[in-house]
Amino acid sequence: MHLIVAASNIKGFGSPPRFLLNASLVIRLFSSNSDILSDQQKSLTVSYLINSCGLSPEAANVASKKVNLKSPEKTDLLLALLRHHGFTDADITKMVTKLPSILVAHPEKTVLPKLQFFRSVGMPAHVLAHMTSRSPAILRCSLENRIIPFYDYVKNLLQNNEKVITVFKCVAAHISHMALQQLLANVAILKKYGVNESNILYLTVYHPESLMMRSDKLLKLVDRVTELGIDASKLTFSHAIIVLHRTSKSAWEARKRAYHKWGWSESDIHMAFLIHPPCMSLSEKKIMSIMEFCVNEMDCEAKSIARRPTVLLYSLEKRIMPRCRVIKLLMVKGLIGGPYNLLSLLAMTDKTFSERFITKYDNIPRLLDVYYGKLSLQDLGIDSSELAEVKLV
């Protein structure tokens, strides 16, 4: 092309020579054929993504911009390998949607060793499929430099293979990065602040994401929990770290407003958080519905719940309503004394509650109907003044 431009600018040339025009034609034809081949290749990729991987046409079009399937035979081998290891069509669709380039990974050299390793350490096939379909990058990172060192450290820390598998399920997306270095750095930070080993183990098993965050963020969380007055040696410290890590500032403020509506002061909210941090992880809807039932229907004092915030974590329909109504009925009839401790009532196992308050009083008409929510106390002719005289605290 440069020859054409140069020749056309030389004095005496009225128009480019024929051989240069032919060269230009060849270049245009080559470029045109290249575009056609590219379009054909994309079309084949989109078709494969739809027919073999289960993607929708829209998703396949997006994925085709990130992967170019030059060898369908090799990709067929990869899909066969995944299915052999328990991957369902839905697992494969999710995996390819998240990471289209997984389709060009070498089946035997890249993917198979990871699948074999996870199965060798006891990870069930369905767990492996679920984990890698959500975090397929783990199948492309180094087994020797990433996966095995992380596994060895966590196994040494927890001394329990089932718990190690639980950790992997949670942090698989991080393994392809600097997961072990981040974990080591954050464990060191917690130890520096006096967090005991049992708390560190709890965080590792039940919220490993907190140990995968940037160390400067973890430091801020630890400082905040410490400033709130929570002892680093107590399990409550780990609970507080988890709640604060998961809760945005706007969600925190919304939950505070919900408690304020029931007369809780700032000190009440602070006290409740110190006692049981998960009370600040509840939705405003759940807070309002439980408080409304306990205060308006069961005549509990709203502030007393701040001293027993664990109450708020139970299911309203499955535990709080049935048990409270049964206890109120028995108290109204003078069969048990009061006031009755609400938290003790809800903390009982189903078996213990049934033995103490259902089976023992099975001669009370309609007791089971009240327990199963088929009848309200008002349906039995008990008015609000009678209910107000018996207290749950």
TrEMBL record:
Transmembrane segments: none
InterPro entries: MTERF (IPR003690), MTERF_sf (IPR038538)
Gene3D superfamilies listed in its UniProt record: Transcription termination factor 3, mitochondrial
Any one Gene Ontology molecular-function term assigned to this protein's record: nucleic acid binding
Annotated keywords: Transcription, Transcription regulation, Transcription termination, Transit peptide
Key word Transit peptide present: yes
Gene Ontology terms describing biological process: DNA-templated transcription termination
Highest rank taxon of the organism: Eukaryota
Pfam assignment, any one: mTERF
Family the UniProt entry places it in: Belongs to the mTERF family.
Protein name: Mitochondrial transcription termination factor, mTERF
